[in-house]
Amino acid sequence: MAADLGELLVPFMPTIRVPRIGDRVFKSECAFSYDSPESEGGLYVCMNTFLGFGREHVERHYRKTGQCVYMHLKRTMKEKATGASGGAIPRRKNGKVFLDLDLNCDFNGDDYEYEDEARLVIFPDHYEIPLPNIEELPALVTIACDAVLNAKSPYRRQEPDSWDDEVQVSKHASSLRQLDNGVRIPPSGWKCSKCELRENLWVNLTDGSVLCGKWFFDGNGGNGHALEHYRETNYPLAVKLGTITPDGADVYSFDEEEAVLDPHLAEHLSHFGIDMLQMQKTENGFTDSDVSPRISEWEVIQESGSKLKPVYGSGYTGIKNLGNSCYLGTTMQVLFSIPEFQRAYVGNLQRIFDYSPLDPTQDFSTQMAKLGHGLLSGQYSKPPVKSELIEQVMKEEHKHQQKGISLKMFKALTSKGHPEFSSSRQQDAQEFFLHLINQVERNSEGSENPSDVFRFLVEERTQCCQSRMVRYTQRADNLMQLPAPMEAATNKEELIAYEVKRQEAEVSRRAPPLAVRARIPFSACLQAYTEPENVDDFWSSALQAKSAGVKTSRFKSFPEYLVIQIKKFTFGLDWVPKKLDISIDMPDLLDITHLRATGLQPKEEELPDIAPPIVIPDESKDHLMNNFTDSPEIDESAVMQLAEMGFPLEACRKAVYYTGNMGAEVAFNWVIAHMEEPDFAEPLVVAGFSEIDSSSSAAVPVADNQPPEESVAILTSMGFPRYQALQGLKATNNNLERALDWIFTHPDSKEESEAASDIADPEGNANPISNATAVNEPSGPRVRDGPGRYELFAFISHMGTSTMCGRYVCHIKKEGRWVIYNDHKVCLSERPPKDLGYIYFYHRIPS
């Protein structure tokens, strides 16, 4: 028999691999579905790629790749026989077979036991070889099977303990020098002091400079000004704004090039007016858990006092909480209740699966289609059978549990490369919503983009208070942020009385009184949104000087689906993060037609289109230009780093050259931006960098004054978008230095789609992605304008003191009834807490 098995496997031996370090073995989840070894058909693990497939999808992989040998894993659960010892640990047959299997067992261990089976299956004849079978199998096959069965979870490297435990105390923490420069960091309104970016901001702990972080390979992040500041000053430590909590903050050491711990962080932050120690307690000295309303909020939002009826079937599948992942689960539940998302991914399921890459775990469209099918098919939300219902009546302590689906694979993909979402910390559901919309847009080239339903245009009217002249600009947005004016509360007397009692309790060191929740009318929130706001550092082109300015915002277009975020989270003057305890009477029917923008009015006079003067110190300007105008030697070490990633050698040399020897990371960005070009791998033709100036622009053959690609590469390597670099060069006759000034003075330049239509090489070959953009978006971002009347269909609620802790649940209106999605539990809602939501979703009412 041993010889027979050996001969049977001989033709397939070249395709059977032993997992190496770095190989990910997916033995607990199918790449195309949420089937697992616990599923009826078990799970098939390819012995070459180590991808897992359910019974319905393994044939597709076999036909696409020709891989014939799979390991079939099957786990069978059954109730313990009567008389079995109560309280015993579930008996595991063939225990070693499923060592470190990452499954989601929600059964009662005292009542159930399970059997594990593993066997090799050879396609297409489905010949089965039971495991273990050490004596009869070839040694290589035995080693490969044992390695697969004992492989660690492919997601373990992203889990918190494997990351946080490695963070070490910085060598600079105890001796950090802080300048007495009088800098005080405000609790809000931060922006980079060099580029005015308002996200991914870091405070340097030596001089208090607020600067943006580095850009990521997916285009997110900042412009690298925090790192640039370190290179100029050697000030080593910085803390990320928005991460400061009672437990610490994200601290980075530029010198040590890694995240670090700072035992003296509270002292270092207090130097700039951030009282971190005060954040450990509430104002009266009691911890947040002592405050009664916190418990009340959790009970109300989760409807804890009601016996909610579970619902099953299509659209009623829960999502398991992976540990602080409810922000992701609630967002995806709402998105896949929208027909456009259902149609784009579930409606095209077979096409997406058939054309998926060889590794579908890394394909966004595949994983979105998989998730949509998991939530909408009803396959993973089946009601208990009749016998189980009878058992529940006879045995009250046994309750049928809704299992839901686990989004480990989806979370690993969508959070890849993101410093926050890839962690196990709680996140802001609003930030994840925008992050996911960005991914949907990037992965919808040439196909339907379901996120178009959220996009709308905002018209901003800025007025100079002295000259009374105005300027109108437009921007695209996916979400309406609605302020919550506390001064408009209808129960002011109760709030004042509570504040008096609270202060008295603080003085006498007594427990605080029962907190009072502010009741704010929705109309007051809408009114606050329309109020003019002051513009910081407004420069009036009419006066040619700084002046007071005010800005108002209106809807240039109304989206198909209106998303409203209530601005509940803020910082106190003492930097204590606070969540406003408010109740807003959100309407079921909403009409915002009166917020439609009107544009320039007949009696209004526009501000002159004159840019403010930009003063760049000569020393900095010379240093900047010298980095790019001197003909550099090509950094071969950076070239080899890129080449080791699999890119063509000549393309790597061009990337390093065109980015001015600024390192492999910047060159990598150039590679990603140019890899679709026909001459991507052509040999480098070096032209002197001194010829970049407009006086020598004729040295580079261009059509219609097309900017030289070298100049474009230099600007894009500095973090500017390609369309902005093209506009700056065209506006300044391809003068690199003047183009840099132009970009800084025109932050609100034309949309990328308009510039993309001008991008073509001298031979008339257009970049396929840019050309698609020009065809599909000739007039800017795609919007679906229509009437401004809406109906509420979903809302996400947050419980806790800040977005960095607590929990999220969502309520969705389906088939005329409200349903609560609380992780894996899906039930009919009895009292949906519409007044306590955080993010609201409205759909347009057809006219």
UniProtKB/TrEMBL annotation:
It comes from the Eukaryota. Residues 633-674, 706-746 form the UBA domain. Residues 168-276 form the UBP-type domain. Residues 767-776 have a biased composition (Polar residues). Keywords: Autophagy, Hydrolase, Metal-binding, Protease, Thiol protease, Ubl conjugation pathway, Zinc, Zinc-finger. It catalyses: Thiol-dependent hydrolysis of ester, thioester, amide, peptide and isopeptide bonds formed by the C-terminal Gly of ubiquitin (a 76-residue protein attached to proteins as an intracellular targeting signal). Residues 751-783 are annotated as: Disordered. Residues 317-845 form the USP domain. The keyword Cytoplasm does not apply. Belongs to the peptidase C19 family. Its EC number is 3.4.19.12. It holds the Pfam family UBA. The keyword Protease applies. This is Ubiquitin carboxyl-terminal hydrolase.
